[in-house]
Fold this sequence. Notes:
By secondary structure, the protein is of the alpha/beta class. The chain has two domains: 180 residues, Quinone Oxidoreductase, Chain A, domain 1 (Alpha-Beta Complex); 128 residues, Rossmann fold (3-Layer(aba) Sandwich). Helix content is 32%, strand content 25%. The chain has ten helices and 15 strands. Helix 8 links the parallel strand 12 and strand 13. Helix 3 crosses helix 4 and helix 3 packs across helix 9. The longest helix is centred in the middle third of the chain and has 19 residues. It starts with a strand and ends in a 5-residue tail after the last strand.
Amino acid sequence: MRAxxxxxxxxxxxxxxxxAMADPEPRCGExxxxxxxxxxxxxxxxxxxxxxGAPMSFERIIPHQDGAGIIDRVGPGVPSNRLGxxxxxxxxxxxxxxxxxxxxxVVPSVQAVPLADSVxxxxxxxxxxxxxxxxxxxxxxxxxxxxRVLIQGGAGAVGNAAILxxxxxxxxxxxxxxxSEQAEVARAxxxxxxxxxxxxxxxxxxxxxxxxxxxxxxxxxxxxxxxxVAMGSLAPDGVAVxxxxxxxxxxxxxxxxxxxxxxxxxxxxYVYRMPQxxxxxxxxxxxxxxxxxxxxxxxxxxxxxxRIVEAHxxxxxxxxxxxxxxxxxxxx
Length: 332
């Protein structure tokens, strides 16, 4: 098979290669997926560069956790009726060397989730990391139907997914952005209120829009910086959920008395450590959302597998609004 891979960590143009590798074979409980589209995530960049000093986990790595395609082979213990099934995959490279940036990927059967015929492989390849992170942030503390939700960073991959899922689930959604083109993406996803965080007082706008009550949930891309906004925006017994930080070594300082009097709760979500039950629930809900036509994340860039260096550099630039996808092979 053709695959993208690296044997050492470093800059994309220095370490990423595309070449021939042996076709993988599924073992007990696994399936092999003929990959049509592979999706990029920031965590893929961190694996390649050795983020925070993390070493190579394997001698050779095929990157990317997300993808979509067709099951073409099953291992012992997997029903043969899964052959030919359209699927999206998640955590393809977590705990194993070979991810979805290849013509074939092998994953545990449960990590190849049925993809409705009405849902494109492109959409399927956007789900994984972003969609499951967003789902956990939104639903870990209960149903959000009729609730008010703030998405900090509504044009990012997780933020965009969170808007789509929250609207599908029946919530009122506000989203923050940094510039006008991001606002367009957030509105297209269904945000009821879009706030430019550089030009407006986020907490004040939210209080005005909610008759002074505030929001029940916050999904935050950078809570260490946004803690004051969170404290000023949460409704009584509200929950702020953080899944990222611009400064991972920074300290989060929560004002005790306001948090105590408000009954606020704080949650932290790392998709690679989500409980298995939460992963399964997220997979089922997001698949249902996608099948309904409500899950259509913004896509910033589509490139062929041979241009993976360009794709990784675009991801690292921070200028893309939406998901970056690699078209691995056509679906026949």
